[in-house]
Amino acid sequence: MCGIVGYVGDSEALPILLSSLERLEYRGYDSAGVALIENGEIFVQKEVGKIRELVKSLWGKSSKAHCGIGHTRWATHGVPSFENAHPHLDPSKSFAIVHNGIIENYKELKEELINQGHIFTSQTDTEVIVHLISKYYEGDLLEAVRKTIELLKGAFAFAVITKYEPDRIIGVKQGSPLVIGVGENENFLASDIPAILPYTKQIIVLDDKEIVDITKSSISIYDFDGMIKTKHSMFVPWDIVSAEKSGYKHFMLKEIYEQPRVISDTVRGFLSEGISFPFDIKAINRIVMSACGSSYNASLIGKYLIERYAKIPVEVGYASEQRYEDIPIDENTLFIAISQSGETADTRFAAQYAKDNGAKLLSIVNVVGSSLDRESDYTLYTHAGPEIGVAATKTFTAQIAVLYGLAAFMGYERGSMTYEEYSNKIDKLAHIPSKIEDFLQNTDLNGGVYSELSSAKNAIYLGRGLSFPIALEGALKLKEISYIHAEGYAAGEMKHGPIALIDENMPVVFIAPKDKLYEKAISNIEEVLARKAKLIVIGNASDQHLKDISKHFIGIPDLDEEDLYPILSVVPLQLIAYEVANRLGLDVDQPRNLAKTVTVE
Ligand code: M6R
Predict the structure, then answer these.
(1) Cα–ligand 1 centroid distance for 190 (angstroms)
(2) Which of 33, 136, 464, 591 could form a disulfide with 144 if both were Cys (CB 3.0 to 4.6 A apart)?
(3) Ligand 1 pocket test: which of 250, 340, 574, 590 has the largest number of ligand atoms within 8 Å of its C-beta?
């Protein structure tokens, strides 16, 4: 999704803006640009394509500007093009804006402005905002922005500068993320924290309906009614190394290898923070879980575990669908929203719907201070650190770890598990990092798997029980970064349709750990073998039978807690997707058309 950066201070703005934009690349984008206030005028440079193109086009430019804004654009209104790239200017070239989100009523506003003689140069909704700001400007940028936002409908964040007030940036947040970095004789603005992490770790997270007025020595925050707000900065403990590749070829690979540490941190965080629900968990009679993408797949695992341990009925839905369903929700419903970023628009809207209907809202998020975190009654954190690769890896396994701990805790609180049983579960979870480490260090995935999949047009992923969501996740990983069509199915469903797809050319990835559905999985594997598919199996390393019957076999360590196999069995699937995409020479960390944080509906 679009990324915003802003800088005002004693240093030269251009290199800071460009390097901050590079750290927003992972969000996904198709064009990039900067606007600087130089010698009383606004200078704009933008390019379609990667930030390196923008950097190249600025080669040799020496800029003394101390105030500017920058942007990475992920096209929503209008194709990726020079005209549609941000920053956008007003007709007099006195104001520049960068924007993330959607102005839902831009067509009406644009029509009105055209009738008043305004000429537009892009197809974007953004251009409307800067025209309005210039129209309302009477010597105070803040006032002009205030008048403008009264007219805007939608979810958005933007930053605007004007040549008339060269040391000032105004930022607005309504639905899309925006954070302020607090420095000495300098301040920053960005769509998310990693962008400005090398410059400051003191961060103020803006809430919806807030406007910030930034100069190099002051930060004033107002609500949309013009009331000043007092907000304190928080210290972000992430170091910049966690947002860098540290010698790995791609962020995704680094993040896969970080999983043992991440799960340890997640378990530690879980134990030290504990769980103390701000509502009576015994009064909850139904749970609804909501998420998108990988977080949705993790929710499916959460459903199995919560129903198993806490005996509460759980419904799981895609957030984008749920917000338009009339799901029955009341004050005895617990709504669990799961999101790495905590900014996914669909998930936030679904959660808001649930809250409005009286449900208790519990979130599982990775980004502390994100919108969902702040909007929830209660939050559990995944402590995975910044995840830069678009494909979710370490945050997915961290979500499963939290869901496992949460399910066990609910079981204990509701009396379906003893304290000993609960703490035994947590002990077992604490052993998982060494098992993942063992797999990562000792397994040499054979090259045959990669060539099998990288030459395929389609692939099927199958699993039963807790391995079914892992099949979905494996297929999602492969398709999103390698562009190979892959589908995950519950293996028992295969004979009701998908089996028609299986022949000797079809790679079938089967996840079959030694759990309670193992025997059933073996029967399904036989069905696959009977159709001569190219069978790739993820099973226990000790499972000689599976080894013998599969074309390619990937062994994972034995566990004495079968409910934890998903955390382990997804790791080879992540590696397979990574290596296939890598061999195909694709952009692993920033796959086409995808954004890391999807802040639009
Ligand atoms: O930040 P979220 O967890 O809410 O994001 C949800 C999905 O967009 C995300 O999981 C997406 O599916 C991943 N890129 C998958 O790897």
Answers:
(1) 20
(2) 136
(3) 340
Pocket test for ligand 1, best of 176, 192, 289, 295 (most atoms within 8 A of CB): 295
pLDDT tops 90 at residue 326 = no
Give the closest residue (by CA) to ligand 1 atom 9.
293
390 lines ligand 1 (CB under 6 A): yes
Residues with a known catalytic role: 2, 596
pLDDT class of 464 with cuts at 50, 70, 90: very high
* CB of 399 sitting under 6 A from ligand 1: no
Q: Are residues 96 and 48 located together in one domain of the fold?
A: yes
Total domain count, the chain: 3
598 within ligand 1 shell (Cβ under 6 A):
yes
Rounded to two decimals, what is the model's pTM? 0.78
By the 8 A CB rule, do 185 and 217 touch? yes
Residue 494 lies inside a defined structural domain of this protein: yes
Range of the domain at 535: 442-601
**What is the Å distance from ligand 1's center to 4 Cα?**
20
Do 156 and 61 have their domain in common? yes
pLDDT over 80 (residue 149):
yes
* CA-nearest residue, atom 8 of ligand 1: 293
| Mean pLDDT for the stretch of residues 297-316 | 97
Strands 210-214 and 179-182: unpaired
CA distances from 207 to 82, 309, 385, 392 (A): 32, 36, 22, 26
Q: 480: Cβ below 6 Å to ligand 1?
A: yes
Pair (219, 267) in one structural domain: no
DSSP-assigned beta bridge partners for residue 317 = 290
The two tokens of residue 598 are 């999807």
Ligand 1 pocket check for 371: Cβ under 6 Å: no
127/264 same-domain check: no
What are the strands, taking DSSP E only, across 358-484?
360-365, 378-381, 458-463
Q: Is residue 306 included in any domain, yes or no?
A: yes
Is 436 contained in some domain? no
How far, in Å, is the centroid of ligand 1 from the Cα of 594?
10
341 lines ligand 1 (CB under 6 A): yes
Q: Show the DSSP H helices in 443-594 as ranges.
A: 447-454, 467-482, 518-530, 544-549, 565-583
CA nearest neighbour of 158 among 123, 185, 190, 193? 190
One domain, residues 499 and 590:
yes
Last residue of a domain, one of 186, 220, 237: 237
How far does Cα 241 stand from its chain's mean position? 19
230 and 273 in a single domain? The answer is no
CATH of residue 65's domain is 3.60.20.10
The confidence band for 297, taking pLDDT boundaries of 50, 70 and 90, is very high
* Cβ of 320 less than 6 Å from ligand 1: no
Q: Smallest Cα–Cα separation from 393: which of 510, 299, 252?
A: 252
